[in-house]
Known about the structure:
The chain is an alpha+beta fold. Helices cover 32% and strands 24% of the residues. The chain has a 5-stranded mixed β-sheet, with helices on both faces. The longest helix has 23 residues, at 225-247. 52% of the residues are buried. The structure holds acetyl coenzyme *A (ACO).
Amino acid sequence: MKMKSNGKPASRIAGMGWFAPDKILTNTDLERMVDTSDEWITTRTGIKRRHIVEPGTRASELATPAARSAMDEAGVNPEDIDMILVATVTGDYKFPSTAIFLQANLGAKNAVAMDISAACAGYLYTLHFADMMIRSGQAKTVLVVGVEVLTSMINWKDRSTCVLFGDAAGAAVVVPSADNRGILASYLGTDGSLADLLNCPGGGSAYPAMNREIPMEDFTIHMKGNEVFKHAVKKMGDAAVIALDLAGIEKNDIDLLFAHQANMRIIDATAKRLKVPQKKVFKNIQEYGNTSTASIPLAMGEARQKGLITDDSVVVCVAFGGGFTWASSVIRF
Ligand code: ACO
């Protein structure tokens, strides 16, 4: 699925926000929990710490402050919001959606609300659909959120996955664009034939939670890491190139690259493919680990707060996750 604005974007990001819990789990902490080392985690992934919730914390509790920050920056009131799209694979309940809890928390009584499940690419999917809603005239103010409590589905005995993930939320308010600033192009892709490489099967209709014969491990993340790695490198590079072509933006004109913070080596490979120098590659994986759908909006929100995204900045966002799903966007601020 592709969107090309021909230089006349339909929508722009008017405000961004993020939230991460205060509690920190370091590589040294993990050394005491599983057979791993700070050296292995750092060199293989780039991760040093991750922020994690207290057990029982809901995804909507992280999404709410992130959304409020984005709304403050955009200067919108709860009643102004027409639509709330939440990307998550670790929502509060199986149903209703996390978006409806967020709607209630914010008092956004005029908003329709729903979740999108597209793993780590989910946030860029929501951004694309927000753009489409505004483009079609169905909505004027869309709140998009990526939120995960990944610690709710981690097997703390599996060293190949438990060292990777953290909890966080990121949000943006998307409104109509009046000039040449906004979402210039976006691209979404899916390949459902590779679902076996990355999933969490338990709790769905295939493995219902009430079936006591299903092992607890099936309610946690399963990943064939090195297989996923190869697909992620290829697809993220391809997706970024496709979105740049659609936007008519040259690689040299990229001001900042936001690649899904899953692994430092994947981020670096994507940057290399795009010939983007390191100083234009935003990284916070060392602090938060892989926060799945929250990864891109968390990175963008932090970068904005640090003054790295300014008026006229051209940013490229690209993500890849379970499914497989992948997505890319080119945005002019
Ligand atoms: N500490 C020490 N050793 C470990 C650890 C650990 N935490 N984890 C695995 N190892 C060992 C393995 O057992 C293996 O040992 P062996 O050679 O004796 O069998 C060795 O390290 C190498 O394992 P690999 O899995 O081949 O290591 P790799 O270099 O591929 O790194 C990693 C693993 C970090 C998971 C990497 O493959 C990766 O980042 N994959 C992509 C993740 C990703 O992009 N996910 C997509 C989004 S996530 C989502 O959608 C929720």
